[in-house]
Fold this protein.
Amino acid sequence: MSESEWVQKTLRSLSLREKIGQMMVVPYFASYLSASSEDYQQLVNQVRTWHVGGLLIDARRTPLGRERSRVYAMARLTNRLQAQARVPLLVAADFERGAGTTIEEATEFPDNMAVAATGKPEYAYLIGRVTALEARALGVHWVLAPVADVNSNPENPIINIRSYGEDPHRVANYVAAFVRGCQEGGALATAKHFPGHGDTEVDTHLALATLEADRQRLDAVELVPFRAAIATGVKAVMPGHIAVPTLEPNGQVPATFSPVLLTDMLRGELGFRGLIVSDGLTMNAIADNFTPGEAAVRAVEAGIDILLVPADPEAVLNAVEQAVEAGTLTEARIDESVRRILEAKASLGLHQNRYVDLDKIEEIVGRTMHARIAQQIADEGVTLLRDEAKLLPLDAAKTQRAFLLVVSGDPDPYPGAALEEELRQWVHNLTVLRTDTRFLPPAKVLLPQPESYDWALAALFVRVVDRKGTVALPAEHVALVNQLLDTSKPVVMVMMGNPYLAARFPRTKTLLVIPSTTPVAQRAAVGALMGEVAIVGELPVAVPGID
């Protein structure tokens, strides 16, 4: 049966309720689940009773941090759920840094800003391709990346290093390259967060964000990467929960609910023909202001095809069904979205085979070559902002005493683990102290006496984390670092993550930046410090106060 025949036959066979179900994607964490467990039965109920059309693989938060799914548990659970589905499930994942973003044993790349610091868009292509190859081997068909936002606001709390930078045309080149690589690798790519989340100061996980830009500014900045993605053939676009008062008559309506932005601009003017997927509907920008049913109806009215992570799938089914019965929505409008969804599934070959081949996973996922590519990209993304003291490269040939202070602006029981491990390969007499925002606050950290070490390394980590609302370093952490800078000993600072924090330390004479906190980025930083890796990166954003 051809793809088009399967799409038409399947669409005709679905009831209205089943069609609505196809428009929902629900989250799951992949661990071992017995067939009788409550968690497994809930997932089966979502697939069989609520008729959901897709799944979103995710990590989960624990008291000790973020726990990622495991390769075989994920593949096996996905196969079990696919077997329960009448229509093949479309499996999605936020693989912004590769499959390793949420899967423990898969390849993880540095963040997008570090990729752009290399000056090589071809690296974005490689990341997209490797990500797609590993994703498909795991049973993931849809990559919710790349981030196409232009990060023009240093105070942006949620985009930051997830962006390729502040120059719209540079960002567009990297976005288009990732899209090509991902889709040539066999997965669907997604440009997000339309019409642009980079010049905002609110995390939409917490509240509605507002983009104060007129149409001329949008055309010159925010829309440039999205136009490039569409021209490249991107299969999906994700609007953000962002209000654009200059375009939307009701200034408090997010793009998610705006026919002006989705139907008129994205579909009509920009000519996008693929899937429009909402951002997570449990995010506070939506959940604090609308019931799950109301949010779903308004999103579908505006032009959304896929409702991502609805708070209450059963309420969504009922509300959208009632909206059709009342004439608020038409069944033809539902068919329009479901047809696109089925066409996407058919284009992926899911109508022929929906299952993961468990025996082939180890041949593709976490390959040594993929790890080498990730490390090479990270190495070339290291940037030297300042070395007035001429400390670099550090001389590992000398027998020296070193002090490493790891400062994390997040709850982290053991920040900088990869950096310390790598540094110990070079420096054997190493004293290490750590501080974070939960487990060991700065007030409990007593710096060693300066005479006990020859030089110090201050490694600062600030991650971009949803619902935190900031990418700043707390004042008490800044004070601790300044205390170290006040000593008479040479201090090298390594900024891991948010590069704009460099402006907080104008007295730092030697400052190395890599806008990523991933293990490959940590290893790259040490290689650059010790002279093993040439420092060739150039930050794709301007840091206030840094020449």
In short: The chain is about 35% helix and 15% strand.
